[in-house]
Design a protein that fits this description.
3 strands; 3-stranded parallel beta sheet; alpha/beta; 36% helix
């Protein structure tokens, strides 16, 4: 399970650092991807763009999403993810 990535989508660096510290205190060894923009995170989840090679890795099972993001907002990203059947877990 430690190879399953955790994705943090948060525009506040202080909040992101607090989340990473909390995860570290639980002694998790999962890789952590941090994003401040929803579009970059969507590319990671879809394995496209600069994350094309990531499609070989295990998909993230935990995504922590700030709903008040700049640019493509968190709610827009959430709608796009929920509408994409390829991102659904069985």
């Amino acid at each position: 399970m430690s190879s399953t990535p955790i994705v943090i989508i948060e525009d506040s660096q202080a909040d992101c650092e607090a989340i990473v510290r909390a995860l570290a205190s639980m002694q998790l060894t999962n890789p952590i991807y941090q994003f401040s923009w929803g579009e970059d995170a969507h590319d990671l989840l879809r394995g496209r763009g600069r994350f094309f090679e990531r499609s070989e890795e295990a998909p993230p099972r935990l995504v922590l999403l700030d709903l008040n993001l700049p640019g493509r907002g968190g709610m827009d990203l959430l709608r796009a993810v929920r509408a994409d059947n390829s991102l659904r877990f069985t």
